[in-house]
């Protein structure tokens, strides 16, 4: 804490030296904060930042507290704090613009409020107040020296009242009035004060918190079997993707692919000319990360794709994979940057075989950090010029956290709408560290949370632990790298359950598009990988195929856009239900939109039970009737009070998406 007094006027903060203050006010246990203020917390434009702190002093003196906040170099703005019990104080302010904000708390022992409190206490008990009037007169004199011209005249009139010994009762009434309290707030005596250090906030656009991702390989976009797709082919797919309700189209790397050690089907070592190779082995004589795979099209074709997608409110997200094929231009230009030793151990034909990797990892150290930082920043700026505003960095944990922090800070200061996404499923604390280092969006462990208990524990961790202030997750059903065990049966109800959970639990979610839609489930034996993975070969998809999965994706994405409660992750409340095969949770935006989601986690059997609806969170009484309107089937159920019956058959529909509505006596 800083031991100085601050005088507030006209939204400015002016330091006033004072030797009276010896940190008489204690301010501690502040939230939200990240790493004791070392890192920024994250918010979305339009969010209210709810600030709390323990604020206390000795004795019974009254305290006052304010939040000072500002965006970038603008003037400080002020928000009031109020006590909520047990020396805990709270206040809030709203962030509007994207970019950097800071806030701090300023609190002081308030002699004016202390005096006013004592006056009101005596008046309530009909005790004499005459002995307090001289002190009040001194406080008014002090306020008059700070007051505006208009208020000065009114305060001097009040001083005349306080000097009249025959008008003590009137003086007491004025002391407890709204006008006197207003003067107190405008012209406080804040010499006995404390101030916290500044806490940083990074404010992002809405896309960070609410987005629906669709992953596809552009090379598999062609209508013709066996033909390499192009960006022009992808443009043809855009209306369908938009119709399904997705607003982010995500591509694995789109750059030239290396020839040396090129992988064949299922990652095999013996590739021939017909094998396209893995797009994650980046670079050949056509260029590296700054170039486009020539078979996909030109940079002009890609820019046109970005523009056509934008017309349909779709953003293109690109993978930034720091994986360099032996043919990448940088490998010969900067040979000291790369680790070229080592091999992979795989099972082939029942035997352990050593194979050479098709790409090298870069090793960042003090010798190459500055040069590599400049080169990588140049590439990112080039992508921005192509129209890219979302960059998914593949396995960023392989490189120093401080490197990413510096890189992201440098670029986002100039481009605050750019979203960096940490694309990795590594250890939890490492994922937290990456998020703190500046990555706006992060992968999550949703794919491996299956049972009711572990789902409840995980969503409560994201919503109520300290993670909520800095960790913005995306829930994936599957990815090109991961065919989760829970989808390896190809059982349609299970597919629908996982989709519904991802799309309703998290504001941001994604699917590995055609693979998920068309229930491709064959796995590499014993692994969470796809058999005949699209990472190593070109696929041909029936883009006109429509299924029950497609229908529900389209419907639920539309419901997400129409209901603000589904556009956040941290507003979830799990509901009690004795049946361990049914998960129920409430999503509430506290502005009238309240959705109760009920999911049968058993994809084979009908399940039922009584769900306990938290009526206090939906503004209902314990015996009040309301409507639970299923937005998927359009069925309306008349419910009453806390406990209500649910029953779900997974072979019909394994979930309810119920909007809580008022009951008006209509017959349904």
CATH class term of the domain at 5-203: Mainly Beta
Q: Assign a percent range to the helix content.
A: 25-40%
Overall number of strands: 32
Rg result: 31 Å
Outline type: globular
Uncertain runs: 1-21, 345-352
The CATH architecture assignment of the domain at 5-203 turns out to be Sandwich
Percent range for β-strand residues: 25-35%
Q: CATH topology of the domain at 5-203, which one?
A: Immunoglobulin-like
Report on the structure:
With 668 residues, the chain is of the alpha/beta class. The chain contains 15 helices and 32 strands. Helices cover 27% and strands 26% of the residues. Strand 25 (572-574) and strand 26 form a beta hairpin. Helix 2 runs antiparallel to helix 3 (149-163) and helix 13 (492-505) packs parallel to helix 15. It is globular and about 105 Å long.
């Amino acid at each position: 804490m800083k031991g100085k007094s601050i005088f507030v006027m006209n939204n400015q903060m002016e330091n006033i030296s004072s030797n009276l203050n010896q940190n008489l006010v204690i301010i501690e246990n502040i939230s939200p904060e990240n790493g004791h203020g070392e890192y920024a917390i994250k918010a979305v434009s339009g969010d209210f930042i709810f600030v709390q702190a323990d604020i206390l002093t000795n004795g019974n003196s009254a305290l006052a507290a304010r939040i000072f906040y500002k965006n970038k170099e603008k003037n400080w703005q002020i928000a009031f704090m109020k006590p909520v019990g047990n020396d805990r104080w709270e206040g809030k302010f709203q962030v509007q613009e994207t970019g950097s904000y800071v806030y701090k708390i300023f609190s002081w022992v308030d002699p004016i409020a202390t005096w006013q409190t004592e006056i009101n206490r005596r008046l309530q008990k009909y005790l004499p107040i005459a002995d307090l009037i001289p002190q009040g007169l001194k406080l008014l004199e002090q306020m008059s020296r700070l007051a505006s011209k208009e208020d000065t005249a009114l305060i001097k009139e009040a001083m005349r009242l306080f000097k009249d010994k025959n008008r003590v009762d009137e003086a007491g009434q004025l002391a407890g009035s709204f006008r006197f309290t207003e003067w107190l707030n405008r012209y406080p005596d804040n010499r006995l004060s404390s101030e916290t250090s500044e806490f940083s906030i990074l404010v992002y656009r809405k896309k960070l918190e609410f987005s629906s991702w669709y992953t596809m390989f552009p090379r598999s976009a062609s209508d013709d079997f066996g033909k390499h797709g192009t960006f022009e082919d992808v443009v043809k797919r855009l209306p369908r993707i938009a119709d399904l309700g997705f607003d982010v189209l995500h591509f694995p790397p789109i750059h030239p692919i290396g020839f040396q050690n090129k992988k064949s089907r299922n990652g095999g070592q013996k590739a021939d000319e017909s094998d396209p190779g893995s797009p994650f082995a980046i670079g050949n004589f056509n260029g590296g990360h700054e170039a486009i795979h020539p078979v996909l099209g030109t940079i002009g074709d890609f820019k046109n794709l970005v523009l056509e997608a934008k017309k349909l409110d779709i953003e293109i997200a690109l993978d930034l994979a720091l994986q360099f094929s032996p043919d990448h231009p940088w490998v010969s230009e900067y040979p000291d940057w790369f680790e070229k030793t080592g091999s992979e151990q795989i099972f082939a034909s029942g035997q352990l075989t050593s194979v050479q990797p098709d790409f090298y990892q870069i090793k960042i150290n003090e010798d190459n950090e500055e040069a590599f930082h400049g080169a990588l920043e140049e590439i990112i700026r080039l992508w921005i010029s192509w129209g890219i505003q979302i960059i998914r960095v593949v396995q960023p944990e392989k490189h120093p956290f401080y490197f990413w922090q510096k890189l992201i800070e440098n670029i986002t200061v100039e481009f605050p709408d750019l979203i960096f996404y940490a694309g990795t499923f590594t250890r939890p604390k490492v994922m937290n560290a990456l998020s703190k280092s500046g990555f706006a969006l992060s992968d999550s462990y949703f794919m491996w949370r299956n049972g009711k208990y572990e789902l409840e524990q995980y969503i409560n961790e994201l919503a109520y632990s300290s993670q909520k202030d800095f960790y913005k997750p995306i829930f994936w059903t599957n990815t090109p790298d991961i065919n989760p065990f829970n989808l390896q049966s190809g059982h349609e109800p299970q597919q629908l359950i996982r989709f519904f959970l991802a799309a309703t639990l998290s504001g941001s979610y994604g699917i590995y598009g055609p693979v998920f839609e068309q229930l491709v489930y064959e796995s590499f034996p014993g692994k969470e990988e796809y058999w005949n993975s699209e990472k190593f070969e070109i696929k041909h998809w029936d883009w006109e195929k429509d299924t029950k999965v497609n229908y529900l994706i389209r419907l639920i994405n539309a419901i997400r856009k129409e209901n603000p409660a589904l556009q956040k992750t941290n507003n979830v409340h799990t509901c009690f239900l004795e049946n361990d095969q049914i998960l129920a949770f409430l999503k509430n935006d506290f502005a009238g939109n309240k959705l109760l989601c009920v999911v049968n986690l058993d994809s084979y059997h009908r399940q039922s039970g009584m769900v306990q609806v938290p009526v206090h969170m939906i503004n209902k009484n314990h015996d009040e009737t309301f409507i639970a309107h299923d937005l998927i089937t359009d069925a309306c159920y008349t419910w009453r009070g806390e406990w209500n019956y649910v029953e779900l058959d997974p072979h019909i529909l394994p979930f309810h998406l119920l909007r809580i509505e008022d009951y008006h006596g209509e017959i349904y």
